[in-house]
Amino acid sequence: MEASRKLICRQRQVFFFFFFLGLAQGGSEFRRYSVVEETEGSSSVTNLAKDLGLGQGELSRRGARVISKGNKLYLQLDQETGDLLLNEKLDREELCGQTEPCMLRFQVLLENPLEFFQAELQVIDINDHAPVFMDRDMLLKISESSPPGTKFPLKNAQDMDVGRNNIENYIISPNSYFRVLTRKRSDGRKYPELVLDKLLDREEEPELRLTLTAQDGGSPPRFGTAQVYIEVVDINDNAPEFEPPFYRVQIPEDSPIGYLIVKVSATDIDIGVNREISYSLFQASEEISKTFEINAMTGEIRLKKQLDFETTQSYEVNIEARDTGSLSGKCTVLTQVMDVNDNAPEVTMSALTRQIPENSPETVVAVFSVSDLDSEENGKISCYIQDDLPFLLKSSMENFYTLVTERPLDRETRAEYNVTITVTDMGTPRLKTEHSITVLVSDVNDNAPAFTQTSYTLSVRENNSPALHIGTVRATDRDAGANAQVTYSLLPPLDAHVPLASLVSINPDNGHLFALRSLDYEALRAFEFRVGAADRGSPALSSQALVRVLVADDNDNAPFVLYPLQNASAPCTELVPRAAEAGYLVTKVVAVDGDSGQNAWLSFQLLKATEPGLFGVWAHNGEVRTARLLSERDAAKHRLVVLVKDNGEPPLSASVTLHVLLVDGFSQPYLPAPEAEATDAAPADPLTIYLVVALASVSSLFLFSVLVFVAVRLCRRGGAASVGRCSVPEGPFPGHLVDVSGTGTLSQSYQYEVCLKGGSGTSEFKFLKPIVTNFQGHSPGPDIEETPNFRKDFGFSIQ
Q1: What is the pLDDT of residues 551-587, one digit of tens each?
Q2: What pLDDT does 71 receive?
Q3: What is the per-residue DSSP string for 123-155?
Q4: What is the pLDDT of residue 25?
Q5: Model confidence at 87: pLDDT above 80
Q6: Residue 79 gets which letter from DSSP?
Q7: For this UniProt entry, which segments traverse the membrane (predicted)?
């Protein structure tokens, strides 16, 4: 806020100052001072205290100040001494330009009491600027016909100084043609004027370069220069001239129409349009006008028609050169016609054979004669053909020649020859004539058909549709025409047991092979046969190739279950002791597939079970194992349905039903009585009861047979009284040995020995470990081991 008040107060003081200054201006006295421009700053102009009649120190007490209009103050006041000093160097040209005199007004203000004085400071000019031409290069075009005394005003120079320091006069550099005058305009400025003193000649001096100098009146004087270029404008004052005025040329008589004979040239020392020249035939006869023509712009003389030395040997042609005015010059062209070798040799054909058979001995192809209408050297002839051809030229008599084959020709190597007979004379320049003959080599059947392969391997998937295209054999013949037409056929089979005629057929025209009937991979996996290719030449040539057909397997056979048998009169029942641990091997489903490869890869899956979660089937080997420990609550009878599926596309499958019976031991019947069954379970369907009874009967009979067989075998080895040996009890279960060969998914054969423990009142079964047979089919005697429960260590397959 304080700063704002001070600013307002200051503005009011300035306003009142200029108000009182305006009131007092009318009666004030002017004081005049002067200073030379470029005077150094701080230089003294005058002592104001003395001029105003004031004592020393009074200016300071009264608050004296110097004020000037504008923003820039060129003067300053030393209040102690009263001296009026320059603030800086003053440039008169910058302050006043061309105005003369150059006056700077200022006021001296005394504040206490208020009093002011008006004064003027004159800035005196010095010669500190040289004259300058705005155009340092001037161009004047002056006709060479301009008379002496002609005046040409030039552009003036400029000088920033004034008065006597401004331009005083102009000076031109020394020359033979011009002088310069200094003229003065109404505004006082001076300009140069060029005066022609002597007639110009452009051909002698086409241009002049002068230096124009402007000089001012200062002391010392200063100078400024400019270049004056004077171009002398041409007038038509010179006629065209030929150099040389006479031309002698020689031209061959066989020169073509339009041939350039000679180019004449005239020059005109004038310039511009005055030196433009046009050419023409001068006083030409009709014969010359028909024979020659000249280009009006370039002076080129060319032929209009063919020359003949025998008719005219020379021509004299006059040429005129005329400029754009009426001035002209003339010359003569003597044209001599030269005799040349203008007749080419000629070939006359007397006999010609255009087609010859291949493999033929020396054969005459053509008989011809040559001639030339010229004489002497120009009439002498040489004749030849290309070097890379199997032909020869033989001279039979004067100017007669015979063209023959050099060796037997092979059409398959090259079927056509272009023979060029070249005849050249000995003239200068040499002329030649070429005669071309096309010789065709006709075909002979000398190449048998060749198969692209010596053997072919084809593949076809079984169960194909009849007449299926299974492949193609191809043979080519290098001959042509009928000799290259190939016919295909089936040759008698190598194996007489292969019914080739009912298996495949071949298209005799294109070699396509077709399967005549549906093939079965399981019956025929591959077969071979030969095909023949014969051409239609005379005699016919042939060749043969071997074809092997591979039948690819298709998934057309479902898996077949070998064990357990499904077509038996009674189902097979597997016995499992209730004490069996988890993972106990119940049995193994054995199956085979008639296909091959991945179509025969089998996988097993438990499809249905009486009690899910009790049994499991291994997917890759078909082993049926318990999935957990058995309990008393588990039903005694179980029915399992196992699905056997191959890996074909689409996959085929078969299913097998397994009956599993859980037993505690052989001391109890392994088939419960119908009454007990009826008591423990809900009433069953009569058909189910019948099936269970039948299954139990068949299983008992089978088990009894096995036990009897095992007991007999064991008794023969060690006797009935040996401890730890099996004896045949009097009970209903004799010992028995079961031998199963490794077929289907089993890798080897297994044997099981089953017997009853002798003297056991409960008729408890005793089971042995499996015995692996050796390669001779004999079983070593195993150690007999009593077990309280039924035990099986591995499944078995039936072959």
Answers
A1: 998 888 889 988 888 765 666 788 999 888 899 999 9
A2: 58
A3: EE--S----EES-SEEEEEEETTPPTT-EEE-P
A4: 45
A5: no
A6: T
A7: 689-712
The pLDDT value recorded for residue 668 is 43
313 burial type by CB count under 10 A (0-12 exposed, 13-18 middle, 19+ buried): middle
**Euclidean distance between CA atoms 661 and 787, whole angstroms:** 19
Q: 522: alpha, beta or left, given left = phi > 0 and alpha = psi -120 to 50?
A: alpha
> For 117-165, what is each residue's pLDDT tens digit?
887 877 777 778 889 898 889 998 888 888 999 889 988 888 877 878 8
Quick one: CA torsion of 694, 695, 696, 699, rounded to 10 degrees? 120
Reported in sequence order, the residue ranges of 186-257 that DSSP labels E, i.e. its strands, are: 190-196, 207-216, 223-233, 241-242, 246-252
Token look-up 């004489």 returns 375
- Identity of residue 461: R
Dihedral sign of CA atoms 339, 340, 344, 345 in order: positive
CA 317/CA 288 separation, integer angstroms: 7
- Rounded to whole angstroms, the Cα distance separating 767 from 779 reads 16
Coil, strand or helix: which one is 412? coil
| Residue 452: Cβ within 10 Å count | 12
Q: How far is CA 668 from the centre of its chain?
A: 89
Q: Which residue carries 């806020």 as its tokens?
A: 1
Amino acid at 412: E
Rg (CA), the chain: 70
Question: CB atoms < 10 A from the CB of 544, how many?
Answer: 16
Tokens of 744: 């289907």
More confident residue, 570 or 480: 480
Q: What does the chain come to in residues? A: 799
Query: For 168, phi and psi rounded to 5 degrees?
Result: -105, -50
pTM of the model: 0.40
Residue labelled with tokens 């031109």: 172
The answer to whether the beta carbons of residues 393 and 385 sit under 8 Å apart is yes
Q: What is the 3-state secondary structure (H, E, C) of 321-360?
A: EECCCCCEEEEEEEEEEECCCCCCCEEEEEEECCEEECCC
Examine the pLDDT at 42 and tell me if it is beyond 60: yes
Q: What is the pLDDT of residue 293?
A: 94
- Residue-wise pLDDT for 386-436, tens only, equals 988 899 998 878 889 999 998 898 888 888 999 999 999 888 888 899 999
Q: Rounded CA gap, 228 and 180, in Å? A: 12
Q: What is the mean pLDDT of residues 24-33?
A: 58
The neighbouring-strand residues paired with 170 are 214
Gap between the Cα atoms of 644 and 641, Å rounded: 10
**Burial (CB count within 10 angstroms: exposed 0-12, middle 13-18, buried 19+), residue 721:** exposed
For residue 65, what are the β-bridge partners? 109
Instruction: Supply the DSSP string of 24-65, one letter for each residue.
Output: HHTTPPEEEEEEETTPPTT-EEEEHHHHHT--TTHHHHTT-E
Strands 207-216 and 190-196 come out as unpaired
640: buried, middle or exposed (CB in 10 Å: 19+, 13-18, 0-12)? buried
Angstrom distance (rounded) from CA 752 to CA 739: 7
SS3 491: coil
The answer to whether the Cα torsion of 740, 745, 746, 747 is positive or negative is positive
Instruction: State the residue for tokens 């005046």.
Output: 151
What token pair was written down for 436? 């071309």
Alpha carbons 34 and 161: distance in angstroms, whole number: 17
Pairing of strands 573-577, 653-663: parallel
